[in-house]
């Protein structure tokens, strides 16, 4: 590849052509850049911040290598990045087609999918935390319904697809609900649903795995200017992300919010699999809407995410704005469409790409 060809660090083989402007559009850049940032982090021998949960569902913040997260060396010649691609190993758990995920990583040496993630490139701080001190900055995280499908599949995978083993965990609750479409019938059982999921977390805690790639980009408060230390990579495990939407069992649950509905979706997918050996994700999401739109599963504000993600890297991300020119290469910044905040900041900051004297 020619040095003056627009490209992103580390993404040498993928289903996107970075030499054409369309690939730098608002939707594609927001998944391509995070993967490149993760590759860059790996090249600097840094690990991603890894958000998990212990056996009691208490949050834990640790570190995990990008090669461990991706399931392959991200800079290896046989690593292929397939954007907007289904993770086919989960297809056997789902009726119909498994949805496409933001990134599926393939080992070209054997043509196997090794990992798959929803990518959340989030601004730090969000509008709920921008007036707080920097150590309390947080990012809003919006989760798609498709990610709940992948979450359910990841739980099933913990049991190697053994529907009887899953039925032992969820059957006693699901058999108590006659009509899942009516909120009044489900609401009295939400607490038991949560307890059943917590038992799975306790029993399979050592086997939790990454599911969301969540790079953050930090600005100076409300301003459109990047902080000097502005970029880092966080990753959520399938158990860790439950802390984003599991209801507080110390409070009375009086209605089905988007967060609670996501818990119900997850549980119903597991319940149906335990009976049929597969689950119809589209039907579950459509029928269990509880009079709320299905455009997203849920959104969690920066106040909540900060309480889970708080660490030195959240306050002071490790990658500086001067390093962006090492990630966006070959003049790629000139092809950006300044339609989103992060794109716009880079597009309107040509000084970031000045070569040091």
Cα end-to-end separation: 26 Å
Order of helices and strands: EHEEHEEEEEHHHHEEHHEHHEEH
Q: Which bin fits the share of residues in helices?
A: 25-40%
What do the pLDDT scores average to? 93
Question: Would you write up a description of this structure?
Answer:
The chain has 357 residues and is an alpha+beta fold. Helices cover 31% and strands 20% of the residues. The chain contains eleven helices and 13 strands. Strands 2, 3, 4, 5, 6, 7, 9, 10 and 12 form a nine-stranded mixed β-sheet that branches.
List the keywords.
about 350 residues; alpha+beta; two-stranded antiparallel ribbon; 11 helices; 13 strands; about 20% strand; globular
Sum this structure up briefly.
By secondary structure, this protein is an alpha+beta fold.
Task: Tell me the layout of helices and strands.
Blueprint: E1 7-8, H1 26-43, E2 48-53, E3 59-64, H2 66-70, E4 79-86, E5 100-107, E6 112-119, E7 122-124, E8 141-143, H3 145-158, H4 163-174, H5 183-186, H6 190-203, E9 210-219, E10 226-237, H7 258-276, H8 281-287, E11 298-300, H9 302-309, H10 312-315, E12 319-320, E13 328-329, H11 341-347
Parallel strand pairs: 2-10, 6-9, 7-9
Antiparallel strand pairs: 1-13, 2-3, 4-5, 5-6, 8-11, 9-10, 10-12
């Amino acid at each position: 590849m020619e040095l003056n060809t627009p490209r992103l660090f580390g993404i040498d083989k993928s289903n996107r052509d970075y030499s054409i402007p369309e690939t730098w559009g608002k939707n594609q850049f927001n998944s391509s850049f995070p993967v490149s940032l993760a590759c860059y982090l790996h090249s600097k021998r840094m690990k991603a911040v890894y958000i998990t949960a212990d056996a009691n569902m208490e949050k834990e913040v640790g570190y995990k290598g990008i090669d461990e997260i991706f399931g392959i060396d991200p800079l290896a010649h046989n690593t292929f990045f397939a954007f907007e691609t289904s993770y086919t190993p989960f297809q056997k758990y789902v009726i119909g087609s498994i949805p496409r995920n933001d990134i599926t990583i393939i080992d070209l040496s054997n043509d196997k999918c090794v990992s798959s993630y929803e990518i959340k490139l989030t601004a730090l701080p969000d509008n709920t935390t921008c007036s707080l001190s920097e150590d309390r900055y947080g990012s809003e995280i919006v989760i798609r319904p498709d990610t709940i499908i992948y979450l359910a599949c990841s739980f099933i995978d913990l049991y190697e697809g053994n529907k009887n083993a899953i039925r032992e965990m969820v059957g006693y609750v699901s058999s108590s609900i006659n009509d899942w479409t009516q909120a009044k019938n489900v609401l009295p059982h939400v607490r038991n649903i949560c307890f059943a999921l917590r038992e799975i977390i306790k029993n399979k805690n050592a086997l939790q795995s990454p599911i969301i790639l969540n790079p953050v980009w930090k600005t100076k408060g409300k301003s459109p200017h990047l902080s000097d230390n502005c970029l880092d990579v966080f990753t959520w495990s399938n158990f860790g992300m439950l802390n984003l939407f599991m209801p507080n069992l110390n409070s009375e649950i009086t209605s089905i919010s988007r967060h609670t509905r996501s818990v119900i979706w997850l549980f119903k997918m597991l319940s149906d699999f335990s009976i049929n050996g597969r689950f119809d994700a589209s039907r579950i999401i459509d029928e269990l809407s509880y009079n709320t739109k299905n455009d997203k599963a849920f959104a969690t504000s920066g106040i909540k995410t900060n309480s889970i993600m708080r660490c030195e890297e959240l306050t002071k991300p490790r990658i500086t704005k001067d390093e962006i020119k090492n990630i966006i290469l070959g003049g790629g910044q000139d092809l950006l469409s300044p339609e989103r905040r992060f794109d716009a900041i880079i597009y309107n900051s040509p000084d970031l790409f000045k070569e040091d004297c």
